[in-house]
User: Fold these one by one.
Assistant:
Number 1:
Amino acid sequence: QPPRQPGEVHTTCPYCGVGCGVLARMDKDNRVHVRGDPEHPANFGRLCSKGAALGETTGLNGRLLHPRVHGQRTDWDTALATVADGLNRVIRRDGPEAVGFYVSGQLLTEDYYVANKLMKGYIGSANIDTNSRLCMASSVAGHIRAFGEDLVPGCYEDLERADLVVLTGSNLAWCHPVLYQRLEAARARRPGMRVVVIDPRETETAAQADLHLPLRPGSDVALWNGLFRRLVETDQIHRDIRPETEAADSNLKRILHEAGDADAVASACDLNPRALHLFYDWFAGTERTVSVYSQGVNQSSQGTDKVNAIINVHILTGRLGRPGCGPFSVTGQPNAMGGREVGGLSNQLAAHMGFSQGDRIRVQRYWDSPRIARQPGMKAVELFRAAAQGRVKALWIMATNPVVSLPDADLVKRALARCELVVVSDCIANTDTTGYAHVLMPAAAWGEKSGTVTNSERCISRQRAFRTPAGEARPDWWIISQVARLMGFDRGFAYGSPREIFDEHARLTAVHNPGPGMGGRTLHLGALAGMNAKQWDTLQPVQWPCPGPGLDTAGPGRGTQRLATNGGLPTEDGHPRLHPVCAETPGNTPDARFPLVLNTGRTRDHWHTLTRTGLSVSLSTHQPEPRCDLHPEDATRFGLADGHLVRVRSAWGSVLLRARYQTGQRRGELFVPMHWNDCYAAQARIGAVANPITDPISGQPELKHTPVAVEAV
Ligand code: SF4
C-alpha cells in the first residue's frame, strides 16, 4: 500500500453492507480520489468496482442544491417552516397516525436516531419505516425468534476459517464483492475448503462453487428442514441443544415431523437427489460450517421461516459462536444495521427495545419526550397502501426512491399523488420520487457528512466528511432537528453535532441494561458513551457489544467479535432457540395468465436505483441497459428472440426490457435487475411489476417471486 497521502481521511464506503474502509481525498482541482483503507478490518485495503469508482459519482452532476417548495427554489427557513407547519396541521386535524416517515439504510446512524426520536417520541406514532424492510426485515425477525434479539453471532473472519461455506440466496460475488474476495483468498490458501451455493439461478457465485443446488424458488424451508432431519438421524445433535427441556424437545420433534427424507426433499425442491445427498453429507461431516444468507432468503412471503430453518441446523449442531461456524446474514445496505440499532423499523422502539410498557417508559423518560408511540407502526408496503387509501396524509421520504424500489410501485405513485404533503430530502434533484414532492430539501452526500454506520458483522465505523456540502445541502440530522424545533419540540433536538447524537444513542443502549445474562439486551455501546471531540474524530472501527469501561479508561478495543459463545444470549436460558417451521408455497403462484416466475436482484456494478452509480461511465458499461434473462427453451416457447425487446407483465404492472438468453436460468423463470428507473430507461421500473405480498411476520415483500407473462413487442 502506498503511504497515506496528505489530506486523506478514513471513511466508509456508502454502498453495500460489507462496509469497507475507504481513504478519500480531494485534489486541488476538486477531484475525489479513493483507495481501500488497509487498516479497516472489513476490507484490509480491498475495494470492489463500485467502491473504486466512488470518485466518479461525487460531483455536482444531478445534485439537489437548494430547497424547493412546489418546484420553486426557496430558502431553508421557508422550506423548513412549510414542512413543520404541514406536519402540525395534519397531526392536529387527523392525529399522529396520519403522518409517515420512510427512511433509508443510506442514512447515517445519527440521522436515523433523530428521525426515529421525532416520530416515536414527539409526534407519538411509530409510522416510521425504512427501506431496510425490503432488505433485511426477515433476518431481523428470525434473529429475534432464535437469539432473543436482532443480532448476527459471527464475523467475516468466520468465512475465512470455515471448511464449508454455504451461500444461500446470496450472489456474494456481485452483491458483497469484497467479502467474496476474502472468501476466495481463503479458498486459495486452503484448497480443501468447500463452497456450496443454493440459488435458483446459476449466478457468477454459483459458477465458481464446488456444488450448486438450483432449487425451485421458495422451497428453501423444505431443503433446510430435510438437512435438520438428516443431522438428527446421523446423531449430529450438539450437547447444548438440551432436549431434556420440554420446550426444546417439543420443538425438535415438531421440526422432524415437518421434515421429509432427502429423496422427498429433492423432489419438493426440484433438485438432483445425488447433489442434495452430497450437500447433506458435506454439511454433516464438516464441523466448521458457515451458512451465509441474504436477499434470496429474506425477500419472501416466508422469509422469516427460511431464516429460522437455516439457523435451526446451526443450533442443532452447536455450530455458532465459535470460529468458522455460524449462520450469517449479510445486509444489503451500508447502514441497515445501524438503522435497526436505533429503531428505524416501525416495529422496534430504539436501542433494540420494543413496545412493552417497560421499554416505552424507559425510552420516554430517557428522551424526556411529551409522548411515546403505543404500538408498532405500519411497515413499508402497508404505509404506502394506507397513503393510497387516504389514511396517511403526509409522508416524509429520506434518501430513498420508493417509486422505483417498492413492489407495486405504481401504487406508490398513486399514494404520493394523493398525499396532502410529500416531503423528500435527498442529495439528487431528479428521481422518480422527487417529482412528487411538495417540499424538496437538499441533503449532504457521501463525503460531505459525518457520522457512523454499522456493517454486517456489527462493526461500527465512522463516515467522515472531506469536502464542503454542495450548494445549500445540509446533513439529514440537521434537517430533521430543525423541523422538530419548528414543530415546537425545541428541547429534544438542540443538537450541535453528530457526536452529540451518537453519544445520546450510546447512553440509551446502556439505560437499565445489565446485559443479556441479567435480563438486559446485547446491544450495548456503553464504552462509546462520553467521547470527546478528539476521541470521536479518531474512533476506530469497533464491533458491538462494547459495554464499558468508557474510552477514558481502557478503551473499547475492537469490541466483541463473536456472540452466542457458551450461551450469553438474551433468551430465557441464555441459549439460542429452535423455532419449528414448515415448508409453504409462495404467496402468489404462476397460473395460465401469468405462467412464469420473475426474480429480481442486483447487477455487479450498480447500486439501488442508479441515482449515483448511473453517473459513472465506467460502472455503466458493464450492463448498459435493463434486460430480462430467460432460458432459451422459454424463449422458444413464447416466441422471443435473443436481444429483442419484450414486455413483462404481472397483475400489478408491466415493463419493457431486452431479452437475453441465459442457460443458467431455470426453465419457467425470468431474472430482471432491480436498478433501472424511468429517468434512465423508460418503462423499466421492475418495482411496477413486483409482487407486493409480504411475509406475515417481517412485512418483507416477495421481490423474488412474481408470477408474470412475457411477450415480444
Ligand atoms: Fe463498497 Fe461493498 Fe464494494 Fe466494499 S464491497 S467497496 S462496501 S460496494
Number 2:
Amino acid sequence: QVLRTRTFILNLSVRLHTLIQSVFGGPVARAHTKWNTMSGSDPAAAGSLSEEFAVPAHVEEVRSLMAAFAEQHGAAGRMVVLITSGGTKVPLESRTVRFLDNFSSGRRGASSAEYFLSQGYAVIFLHRHRSLYPYTRLYTGVNLLDCLTLEGAGLVTVDQRKLPNITKVLKRYQEVKSAGLLLPVEFSTLSEYLHLLKAAAQALSSIGSKAMFYLAAAVSDFYIPASEMPEHKIQSSNGPLQISMKMVPKILKPLVKDWAPKAFVISFKLETDPSILLERARCALDTYNHQAVVANVLDTRHGYVVVVTKDSQKELVLTDEEAQREVEIEEKIVQNLSHAHIQFINQKG
Ligand code: 9Z3
C-alpha cells in the first residue's frame, strides 16, 4: 500500500521545545522507547501488542503511578478522566531521522483537561511530548523572555500585560498541582501511545464506572513493523521512496471489552469530508460498543462538534457572540460528557 500523505504530515525536523512549557510545565512521566525485534504476528489481535510494537522501558513504573492516582482519587469519591492528546509519531527508520505524524496541536486535550478539573475530576493527561499542555497552552504565542525585566541582584520582574490573566491562571495551576489532581504522562511514538493507553486502562479498572476515557489524540491507522523497518537513515540516492504500511490494531476494541469494561469511554472521530462524518461516527459506535463519539471536521473543529451516542445526536455549536467572548467549545463538550458520565454511574452503580 503506497503511503497517502493526505492525513499525515511528513515531519523531517525535530520541533523546538518552547521555553514557556519548560518553565511552567509540571513533572512528566517520559516514555523512552526500547526497540525489540519483532515479527509476523496478527496485528488485529490486541494480545499481540508487544510483539508488533516496542514496549516503552518504563511502562510498569507509569502503570503503578496511574494505579495509585486512580485509587487515591477514587477513594476520595472523585471521578478520574484519562485524556489522550496530540498526534502519534510513526518512525520510518529504527534510528529515526524521519517519521510520519498525525495532525493534532493538543489544544482540545489540554483545554478539556482544564474544564474537567473545574468539574471536580482528577485528570491523567496522556499527551504527545511538546504538544499543548493545560494552562501553559494559554501562553504559547508569547516569548517568555519578552515578558521579563532584569532588575539586578537576581531580581526579575514580570510584565503582566504581556501574559493575560497570569495571576488567575497561575493561582489555578498551583491549586491543581498542590492538590495532586493532574498526572501528566508523555508519549511520542505510536508504540508508546498504545502501551501506555493499555496500562492506563488496566490501572483505572479498580474504579470501575468512575473512570472516563476521553480519547482525543490523533492516532495513526498505519505503521511499519520494526521487523520491516530499515535500521539506518533511508538514502535518497536509492531513488524515490515507496512505503508499505500495515494497519494498526484497533485498540478501542480490547479497551472497551477487556481492559476497562465498566468505564465510560468516549472516542473522537476526525474527518475532512463533512458528508461522511456522522456515518463514520455511527460505524465506530456500532463496532466498539462504547458510550459516545465526538465527531468533528478538521476545518470547523473549534466551533462545531456532534456528540453521537446509541440513541442520540447532539450538536454543540459556538455562537459568534460566544466566540467573541473567547468561550471554548471544549467547555460545552466537557459539560455534556460529565453530565452523561454521572447518569452512567447512577445507572451502573
Ligand atoms: C480529534 O478528532 C480531535 O478533536 C482533534 C483536535 C485531533 C481534531 P487539536 O489537537 O485537534 O485541538 O489541534 N481526535 C481524534 C482523531 C483520530 O485520530 N480519530 C481516529 C479516527 O478518526 C480514531 S477514532 O479514525
